[in-house]
Amino acid sequence: MPLSRIEESTTRNEGGVEFGGGRLAYAPGEATVAEAMVRRPKLLPATATSGDVSELFLDDHVHAALLSDGDRLLTVIERQDLIEVRDDEPATALGTLSGRTVGSGADLWSTWTSMTSVGVRRLAVVEDGRCVGLLCLKRSGRGFCCDAGVWARALERDSRRGCVPQS
Q1: Could you tell me which residues are beta bridge partners of residue 66?
Q2: What mean pLDDT, rounded, does the chain reach?
């Protein structure tokens, strides 16, 4: 489903962007990216291969693979980065940080309008080169996923497989 373009507003409007499991921001300055990010995103190690990334993308909720060396974010890989690559290729050679990250203190409304205008669903959240979270725009484009929602989806998915996710 394509995202609709959201125009930036300086006054409160009926709509708004949902974050944090039910809070709403209606204009710039009302919330930061840190307030809306998923705080424990899946991180792949620097040793991951393109095959490892492909396996991660089997989950249709995964739109970006984050590769890190400890806490330091190395690259963000999207599905289109995997076209015509071998499964054993080092994943660190794929992807980019350019246009795929945002600072934790960035304005949420401005980030949301930017994401919807270019059709981006995920941004890695960074502080001093460290990955501190993931900003996940919902399919509707009207809000952001929260930790509780991600946990509930994982619990539901894993319970169908007969296992319980680790916290």
Answers
A1: 43, 76
A2: 86
100 vs 125: CA distance, rounded Å: 9
Global pTM value: 0.81
Whose CA is closest to 167, among 155, 91, 31, 157? 155
- Cβ(10)–Cβ(87) under 8 Å? no
Q: What type of residue is 15?
A: G
Rounded Cα gap, residues 13 and 15, in angstroms: 5
- What HEC string does 106-139 produce? CEHHHHHHHHHHHCCCEEEEEECCEEEEEEEECC
Question: Of the candidates 33, 38, 41, which has an alpha carbon nearest to the alpha carbon of residue 111?
Answer: 33
- Across the range 139-153, mean pLDDT stands at 83
| 147 beta partners | none
- Spatial distance between the Cα atoms of 63 and 78, rounded to a whole number of angstroms: 6
Which helix (H) or strand (E) covers residue 159, if one does?
A: helix 147-161
**DSSP H or E stretch at residue 107:** none
Pull the structure tokens for residue 160: 């169908």
CA-based torsion, 34, 110, 42, 73: positive or negative: negative
* Count of residues making up the chain: 167
